[in-house]
Amino acid sequence: MSEPQTKAGDGAARLRGKLITLEGGEGAGKSTQIGHLLGRLGAAGIEAIATREPGGSEGAEILRKILLSGVVKPLGPAAEAILFAAARIDHIDNTIEPALRAGKWVVSDRFSDSTRAYQGGAGEIDPRVLNGLERVALGDLRPDLTLILDLPAEEGLRRAARRRAPGETLDRFEGEDLRFHESLRASFLAIAAADAGRCVVINASAPEAEVADAIWRVASERLIAAPAEQEYGA
Ligand code: Z5A
After folding, report:
1. Beta-carbon contacts of residue 53 (< 8 Å; ≥ 6 apart)
2. Looking at the domain covering 19-227, what would its CATH class be?
3. Is a pLDDT exceeding 60 seen at residue 142?
């Protein structure tokens, strides 16, 4: 489980990094945009790493294979949520926390809001169960910024289908029907509305470069312009 966060300025040799998470439905463009965001952070002199969920650490990548194979599906969404949380614990302990403590920024392709949307919203798990799992997995850790890439489910599925190699099989979640993917979109929008201090909805239907600009505007306004002036001495 994650340790308590180090507060900026508490004597640590380097300041703690920031955690940015990208969320959204299938084919929303998260991986594409993480590439752009990392490039822009680097150009701004901010050291950052990209990671993903499920996965992002040795143990979590093993759980990723199991989860996406679909073998856990018959056990139900609660069992899946527990395994996603287990993967998240390993990811936080071995990748996210060490990077943040070293002053690096971490950009994660999916994080805990995916459990809320996929297993909670679309899978209909009681939110109290998810709150408990989140407490166990995250401890005090919260993303500094969550970008919710929003687009119609049909468009996301079209993009994902275009990207798929010939003969490539669908994973556990790609195989769900359009209604499932539409309910996911509604869940992500509800998460954003409920936590506007942390989440920003990005129009992911726009061309790739426009989405990249919108993301950079939000990231720099929220995390660099104000607080980082003190933290990075800009
Ligand atoms: N899951 C869960 O259920 N519970 C959890 O707690 C967690 C995850 C953490 C992981 O899948 C699955 O696990 C995921 C949720 C579930 N299920 N699904 N489906 P994954 O990691 O294999 O895949 P993903 O996270 O869903 O990402 P994705 O489908 O690979 O899409 P993406 O990263 O958002 O999109 P992309 O690869 O950047 O872009 C898709 C295509 O669109 C590609 O060809 C791009 O060139 C193109 N693209 C990108 N941007 C644009 C724009 N702006 N215009 C046009 N075309 C574009």
Report:
1. 60, 84, 87, 88, 91, 108, 109, 110, 111, 114
2. alpha beta
3. yes
Ligand 1, CB within 6 Å, residue ranges: 24, 26-32, 52-54, 84, 109-110, 114-115, 118-119, 159-160, 162-163, 173-174, 207-208, 211
132 C-alpha vs ligand 1 centroid, how far in Å?
Answer: 27
**Per-residue pLDDT reduced to its tens digit, 202-225:** 999 999 999 999 999 999 999 998
Distance 191 CA to ligand 1 centre (A): 18
Instruction: Quote the tokens at residue 147.
Output: 């970008």
C-alpha 140 to ligand 1 mean position (Å): 27
List the domain boundaries for the chain.
19-227
CA 175 / ligand 1 centre spacing (Å): 13
Please, where are the H alpha helices in 102-233? 112-114, 127-138, 153-163, 178-194, 208-219, 227-231
Tell me which residue has tokens 């929303």.
Answer: 28
196: which residues sit within 8 A by CB, 6+ positions away?
A: none
- Secondary structure class of 164 (helix, strand, coil): coil
Measured by CA distance, the residue closest to atom 17 of ligand 1 is: 173
pLDDT in tens, 6-40: 444 454 545 999 999 999 999 999 999 999 999 99
